[in-house]
Amino acid sequence: MKILWALVKKEFLQIIRDPSSIIISFVLPLISVLIFMYGINMDSVKVTFGIKNDDYSAEVAHLVNAFGGSKYIDSIVSDDMNDLTQKLVRSEIKGIVSIPNDFSKKLEMGQTADLMVISDGSEVNTANYLQNYVMQISNQWLATGKYAYSMSPMIVTPVIRTWYNQNLNGYFFILPGSIAVTMTLIGILLTALVIAREWERGTMESLLSTRVSKMQIVFGKYIPYFCLGMLSTIFNLILCIGVFQVPFRGNYIVLLFVSGLFLFSSMGIGLLISSKLKNQFLASQVSLGIGFLPALLLSGLVFPINSMPRIVQEITKILPPRHYITFIESEFMVGTVWPVVFKCSALLIVIGLLFFIAVYRSTDMRLTNG
């Protein structure tokens, strides 16, 4: 224990003397949260589309006015279809709604009236949103306006209730998930440099000349950076809950416990990279590729996992951020759901132990490979 404590103390002194560790632990989370808060918006805001109306009846005029009645939609009316088409090509608008001159006449006769919607397919999410918006406004107009009598009676009227996030605020979803992305970077990037730095600076030779064991070296790397990572996690939580007022309905002790398991598994990835490469520059580049990109793209934070190919879905099961994001979003929005806590904790423990064993086996106690 004296040897282990000496190694831990050495690492803490190294952290204090090396400002890059502090920057990674506290400045990086601050920048990351600010980017996710103000730079990334999951909500649809201010989509502009054009309206070409050839039917000048009073009822259709109400429909045209209804299209612009949302805070997320701006509409411009023009009689020149070519002008609207050019605006769509230049991305000045995201779609066009064309109302034919016999639109109201067909409705009065009880016939199906076509409403053409042209959307910009280069932005798939925006195109789908615009199409759904036009359909919703059109159906609402039909159900409440002059032509409601010609419609089939609505036997079922849906009453929509949104649980956990009533206002559908995207920040309440994205900010807790951003903690997983940030902590992945911190857990992997911090530890990806420590063993490689020892080999580059020649201090590993001095360390191996002592009677220190492999297990003491591994624990000596885990403990200090785990403590630093947990302080960074608490700093992230203070930013999300205290500064940006994201509602938290769970249990702080459970949150910190599972966060510790997630940090433990992420650190294993970083230490494995560091022990294999023994070069700080390569280790930092590989850690960014292995840590940041999967945490952002394959964790379910940005893209639904169910929409991914089956083989990719299976790969995501070995990624710690996938399980942590499932837990932390549930903990923030819903509260402590014990089946979710147990499942995510068990998976993180298994992943963390596997990487710990891999780090132990890959830690080289010889100066040259033989």
List the helices and strands and how they pair.
Blueprint: H1 2-17, H2 19-39, E1 47-53, H3 58-67, E2 73-77, H4 81-89, E3 95-99, H5 103-108, E4 116-119, H6 124-144, H7 170-192, H8 194-201, H9 203-208, H10 214-243, H11 252-277, H12 280-297, H13 310-316, H14 320-333, H15 338-362
Parallel strand pairs: 1-2, 1-3
Antiparallel strand pairs: 3-4
Describe the structure in your own words.
- The chain contains 15 helices and 4 strands.
- It is mainly α.
- Strands 2-1-3-4 form a 4-stranded mixed sheet, sandwiched between helices.
- β1 (47-53), α3 (58-67) and β2 form a beta-alpha-beta unit.
- The protein is elongated and about 95 Å long.
Going by helix content, strand content and strand pairing, the class is: mainly alpha
**H/E series:** HHEHEHEHEHHHHHHHHHH
Distance between the termini: 30 Å
- Bin the helical content: 55-70%
What is the alpha-carbon Rg in Å? 28 Å
Mean pLDDT: 84
Q: Number of folding domains?
A: 2
Number of strands: 4
Tally of contiguous helical segments: 15
> Ranges with pLDDT <50 over ≥5 residues?
none
Strand content: 5-15%
Characterize the biggest β-sheet. 4 strands, mixed
Q: Order of strands across the widest beta sheet? A: 2-1-3-4
